[in-house]
UniProtKB/TrEMBL annotation:
InterPro entries: Solute-binding_3/MltF_N. Residues 1-177 form the Solute-binding protein family 3/N-terminal domain. This is Polar amino acid transport system substrate-binding protein. It holds the Pfam family SBP_bac_3. Transmembrane segments: none annotated. PANTHER family: AMINO-ACID-BINDING PROTEIN YXEM-RELATED, MEMBRANE-BOUND LYTIC MUREIN TRANSGLYCOSYLASE F. The keyword Signal applies. GO terms for cellular component: periplasmic space. It comes from the Bacteria. Gene3D superfamilies: Periplasmic binding protein-like II. Keywords: Signal.
Amino acid sequence: MIQAVSEGQYNIGMTGITIKEDRKQKVDFSDPYMRSQQFMLVRGDEKRFTDAKSFAAFKEGLIGAQPGTTPFYTAVYEVLDGNEQNPRIKTFETFGATVQALKTGDVDLVLTDGTAGKGYVDASNGGLKLIGDPLGTEDFGFIFQKGSDLVAPINAAIASLKADGTFEALNKKWFLDYKMGQ
């Protein structure tokens, strides 16, 4: 998405993109519209590890992740040894595929935003759970081609939606109250 927007294929991109300094070299970001904390998503019966430190010590443990995403880099640099080629990281094309691999036992851990993770846990009927403390905080923003004149009006809209409570109401509706599959 970042490459496509930076090349002008799209005017705007919004797919849970973390605002990071190195990405600002390719695209312009809006102000943050959402703050996320990453947690460890595991099967409901997981007892071999309880946090990032004990997972790192569990040498047979595998992490499912999408290459190039913040959870991938958190897995590499915060949970494991800093080696992006570490064979303990199994890569998948989509986040949904990582969760499916977790459910089937092909991996032991997936890093996820706490709110999304709660949704997966609530829908799993005990099949999944979140463990450990947050592994970092990240802000999400919309992305634009460098110099885009869309940044200012989008930032104004974000400010307005925060000020009037709309963002808070939408977050509550879709991330706290919403029950997947119902």
